[in-house]
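Q: what sequence does this backbone want?
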């Protein structure tokens, strides 16, 4: 009798603020929108308060911070302006965070599937990842519009895992925000939080399974320990 192939574990990554430092380009595109609307530019340190739920929410939060009313039709217009500016300048200054490539190599050599689950639109996500020559590393790249739901809905993560050929019972999430941590917890999946990403509160506030300050800390020993705990 032929034995079934062993289940390959999977690590699912958030994109902005986790795998790739996109802050300079997100801020440029946000400020382009704000200038078009006659508002003040956002300072770099403000970006952490705005990101995490995609470009549309980022614009809404930036307007709210300046106590400026934003109608839905106007938001639709500015979102289009944002996407045109951001997409037209990709990859800009965006680069993988230090240690990312080595960590992906390490996990891949250990037999892990890898995927991306992000609230950036799928087309922008795939384009950014391709521009950084990372596409072949991921079994699936799922964005805000890949499904009819998105993070923090746990189905976004669960369906990403399934699309990549993985099993939620052998999965780990890596992210930088409360959105990622809440999503993974709701899905019953261990979550490793990076503490250098885009959040206005330290990730320890949201009680992830583990916290890392550099991708050198994302070892197979850590992932195996988390998967072993999940199996118990």
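A:
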């Amino acid at each position: 009798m032929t034995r079934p192939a062993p289940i390959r574990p999977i690590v699912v990554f958030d994109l902005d603020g986790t795998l790739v430092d996109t802050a300079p380009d997100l801020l440029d595109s946000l400020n382009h929108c704000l200038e078009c609307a006659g508002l003040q530019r956002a300072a770099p340190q403000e970006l952490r308060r705005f990101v995490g739920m995609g470009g549309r929410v980022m614009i809404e939060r930036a307007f709210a911070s300046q106590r400026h009313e934003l109608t839905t039709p106007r938001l639709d217009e500015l979102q289009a302006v944002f996407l045109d500016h951001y997409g037209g300048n990709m990859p800009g200054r965006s680069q993988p965070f230090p240690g990312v490539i080595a960590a992906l190599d390490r996990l891949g050599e250990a037999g892990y599937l890898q995927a991306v689950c992000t609230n950036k639109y799928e087309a922008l996500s795939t384009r950014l990842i391709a521009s950084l020559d990372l596409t072949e590393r991921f079994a699936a790249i799922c964005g805000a519009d890949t499904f009819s739901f998105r993070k923090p809905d746990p189905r976004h993560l669960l369906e990403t895992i399934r699309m990549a050929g993985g099993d939620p019972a052998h999965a780990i999430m890596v992210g930088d925000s409360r959105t990622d941590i809440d999503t993974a917890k709701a899905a019953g999946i261990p979550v490793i939080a990076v503490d250098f990403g885009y959040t206005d509160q330290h990730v320890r506030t949201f009680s992830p399974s583990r916290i890392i300050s550099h991708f050198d800390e994302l070892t197979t020993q850590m992932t195996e320990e988390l998967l072993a705990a999940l199996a118990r």
